[in-house]
Automatic annotation (TrEMBL):
Residues 102-346 form the Nitrogenase/oxidoreductase component domain. Pfam families: Oxidored_nitro (PF00148). This is Nitrogenase/oxidoreductase component 1 domain-containing protein. It comes from Pseudoramibacter alactolyticus ATCC 23263. GO terms for molecular function: oxidoreductase activity. InterPro entries: Nase/OxRdtase_comp1.
Length: 447
């Protein structure tokens, strides 16, 4: 049965007190709303991380529009090609031949051969049973100097098995081969953003002990990227990168550590211990780093002075963990915007149910959010601080930390860095309307 959505409709189904919420799905699945907040990276942004690479999409015009606009908006249209499918290609054509020859023709028309080509077939190739493995074999025989990275643009697979984000991050590292291991080199895998050198305990510990940190976002050449095959230890801190990082570590026969972006002091200490043991180093600065994080939280609470704070899952990987940390240190967290609760957040979820059962969880993709009054009943002129662009949009606030994917932060240094950014955001308003619609936070934007 169809349900009419009107401007008088209650938004109760899009918000629930955490004390009444189910884990891991507080909200029912159904029709989804796409808020005009586009800082998250999509498959085009992530693919552009591979230096000296080119992307080729094989799909119909309606699907092509979004990815083509993304490439143009980030000033990378010269690294993007299209093979446009039409309806007659499905019923009187050969999708195999059109795909293979279209890709080959696009490569031949480039001014110079790329080092790698990211190929993006689509849902139609699933529906028609196209033999993509055979297509890749043919392309590799024709272009032996090019690495073909096997990607997909298949939104039909969003809800089952591995997500497209997980599969792409696995595929991006497939060209790496096991080289002679360098015991002083460490890979940090799976992230869109480079680590913050001052806001990450991982980066600080590695630098202090003279280890080289290698990440895809910092590679300037394809040779730099392939040199990641020399690293003796594989790390990952991003949930959507964990699967691919594990697969790479297994294939290269390297040790692997999953180090989630936790906001809990004890978890950070345990993960630092695991990292230091893997590196064979002593953690001589953990007490000082912990004290610095505590001091930063005390300063933040004093600066905010009770100002309400809203957090979103676009900004940080563990929004409930961050809510717990801030509440424990005197910060007035009033809402958390998320649609599902990650497995790593179970302990934070349980703690908040016990200690802050009235804390509202608010969906971002429920259709009711299309008509919710942004800012709610907050009086005009009363400040609210948002951590993340979606929270800023729904709360209609100019005071927000504009970041995604944990912002390159990790550990005690990450806590201190985020606390500093929150204080700065309270003091300096931003142009929310101009900032939050921009695609791909941190990427070039010609708009």
């Amino acid at each position: 049965m169809l349900t009419r959505l009107t401007h008088n409709r209650s938004t109760d189904r899009a918000a629930i007190a955490i004390g009444e919420a189910d884990f891991p799905a507080p909200f029912a699945h159904g029709l989804e709303y796409n808020a005009p907040v586009h800082g998250n990276w999509n498959i085009v942004h992530t693919g552009m991380l591979v230096p000296e690479s080119h992307q080729i999409y094989i799909c119909a015009q309606n699907c092509m529009r979004g990815v083509a606009m993304t490439a143009a908006e980030m000033n990378a249209a010269d690294r993007f090609s299209m093979v446009v499918l039409e309806e007659h290609d499905l019923y009187d054509g050969d999708l195999f031949e059109i795909t293979c020859e279209g890709i080959a023709d696009a490569i031949r028309k480039l001014p110079a051969p790329p080092r790698a080509v990211l190929v993006f077939p689509v849902c139609l190739h699933h529906f028609m049973g196209t033999d993509m493995a055979a297509i890749y074999r043919e392309l590799e025989s024709r272009f032996p100097g090019i690495d073909f990275i096997r990607c997909w643009m298949d939104p039909i697979m969003q809800k089952t098995g591995l997500t497209p984000e997980q599969k792409q991050r696995k595929a991006l590292y497939d060209p790496l081969e096991a080289l002679l291991p360098d015991p002083r080199a460490v890979n940090l895998l799976g992230g869109n953003l480079a680590v913050d050198p001052e806001g990450s305990d991982i980066a600080r510990l590695l630098a202090k002990n003279h280890f080289a940190l290698r990440e895809l976002p910092t590679c300037e050449t394809y040779g730099d990227f392939l040199a990641m095959g020399e690293s003796a230890l594989e790390l990952c801190t991003t949930p959507f990168g964990d699967y691919g990082a594990r697969q790479l570590a297994r294939r290269l026969q390297r040790p692997y550590l999953w180090l989630p972006c936790s906001w809990q002091f004890d978890q950070i200490a345990a993960d630092r211990k695991r990292l230091c043991e893997a590196l064979g180093i002593a953690d001589a600065v953990i007490a000082a780093d912990r004290a610095a994080a505590l001091a930063a939280l005390r300063r933040l609470a004093a600066t905010l002075g009770g100002t309400p704070v809203a957090i979103d899952a676009m900004a940080v990987f563990e929004p409930l963990g961050l809510a717990r940390l801030l509440l424990e240190h005197g910060v007035n967290v009033v809402r958390v915007y998320l649609d599902v609760v990650a497995a790593d957040e179970r302990s934070a979820f349980d703690w908040l149910r016990a200690h802050a059962p009235g804390l509202p969880l608010v969906a971002t993709i429920r259709p009711e959010m299309r008509i919710v009054r942004r800012g709610g009943d907050r009086p005009a002129g009363k400040k609210l601080l948002a951590v993340g662009p979606k929270a800023a949009y729904f709360e209609d606030t100019e005071h927000f930390v504009n970041t995604i994917d944990n912002g390159g932060f990790w550990g005690y240094a990450g806590i201190a860095a985020l606390a500093r950014q929150m204080g700065e955001a309270l003091a300096a308003p931003k142009d929310t309307r101009a900032l939050v619609p921009r695609k791909g936070w941190g990427c070039d934007c010609v708009l």
